[in-house]
Amino acid sequence: MRAIASSPRVEDSAGTQEGKATPRARRFALRTAKAVAWRTLPNWWTWKKCRRKDRLEFINRAIVPTYPMKAAFDTRENNLDLLRLVFAVLVIFSHSFPLGVGKEEAEPMMWLSGGQTTLGTVAVDSFFIISGFLITHSYLRSRSVGGYFKKRVERIYPGFIVCMVICALVVVPLAGAASPFPRFFSRALNFAAATSLLREFSYQHAFTANPNGAINGSVWSIPYEFACYIAVALLGVVGALRRKRVPSILLCASLIFLVGAAGLIDLCRRGDLQLSQVLNHPYFWDRVLLRAPLVPAYLSGVVFYLYRERIPHSAVWAGISVCTLGLSCVVPGSWQLLFPVVGTYLVFWFGYHPRLQLHNFARFGDFSYGTYLYAFPIQQLLVQQAGGSLNPYLLFIVAAPLSLVAAFGSWHGVEKWFLSRASVTSGKAMVSAAGRS
Length: 437
Prior knowledge:
By secondary structure, the protein is an all-alpha fold. The chain has 20 helices and no strands.
C-alpha cells in the first residue's frame, strides 16, 4: 500500500487532477478501489488499516480509468463557440445554391452524400446537438424552472424581435412585398402574434424575380429549438433527467421513427396510392419528415451530456466515426440514422479537444446567432440586385462578410445587453445560440 501512496498523482488530459473529482465520482471510485483491493492487496485488513491519505491516493488512481473525460466535458474552456460560428457560415454557403440558382443539386454535400443531406442540414443538426448538451447543463444548474426559462427567453427573443422589425421596415419594402392585411391594426396584430411564436410575419409577393420568395426562410428552425427547451424542462420536472434511461429510450424511439418514415417512403414509391395520398400531403412532409431528424439530434446532445463521464475522448473512436459517416454517404437512407450518433461524438470530440486551444474565439462576442438571423435576407437582397440569379460561390463570398457585420451589430447592439455580465465578459454563455437553418 505504501507503494501506491508514493506513486505520482495522475493528471487528466485537461490538466486538472483527478483527485479533485466530484463526490459522486469519489463514491464510485471508492467502490471500484475496494473491489480492486480484494484482488491486489494481501488481504482486506490491509485496506482497513491503511491511513486515510493512502486510501485517497488509491482512489485517485482508480478514478483515472473510470472517469477519464468528466473534467474535460465540464470545463468552460471549449471550442463550441467556434463550431457554432462555423456552422452558421456553412448555412450561408448551403443556402447560396437554392437562393442563387434555384437548385441545390450542385451543393457539395448533396453530391457527396448521394442526395441524402446538405451542409445546411448538417449544420442545423449540429446546432441542435450542441444545444441539447448545453441546455441540459443549463437546466440542471438552474435554481428554478422560472429562472431557466428566463435565460432562454433573454437569449432568443431580443435578437429575433429586432431582426423581424428590420425585416418588416427595411427588407419588405426593398423586396417589393405587401401585407395580406389591409388595416394597420391587423398587420400589427399579425406581427406581434407571429413574433411571439418565433415565426415570420405574413407577407406576399416578395422577391418575385428571385428563385425563392421568402424574406427570412432560416427562422423556421427557431420555434423548434424553443420547443426543445420546453421539452428539456418537462423532462427535468418529471425527473427524467435524473434517470438517464428515459432520454436514452426516447432517443432510440426517435431513431426507430426515422427508420419507419424511410420505410413508408419506400412503400409510397412502390405504388400504394392510399399511402401516397398521406405521404404527399404538404403537412406530412413539412412538419414530420423534414423536421423529424431534429428530435434525435437534440436528444443525442442531451444523452451525451448525461453520460459524459463514461464517454472516452479517443482519436480512434473519432476515426471510426468519420469512416462510418463516409460509409453512410454510399448507403442510401443511412445518413439520418447514423449522424445523430457518430456526428454527436465528432462534434464534442472537436469541441472539447484538449490540444485545440480555441476557447477564446468568442472573446469579442458570440456572432453565430446574428449570422444566422441576418444571412438569409442579405442573400436575397444580393440576388435581387444581381437580376434574380447569382453564382452560388460569388453569393457566398459577398454575403458571408456582410452577415458577420450584421451579427457584430446584433451582438453589441442587442443581444449582449440581455445576458448576465459573466456571460458577456467571458464571451461564453452556456447556452446554444438558438436553432439555425
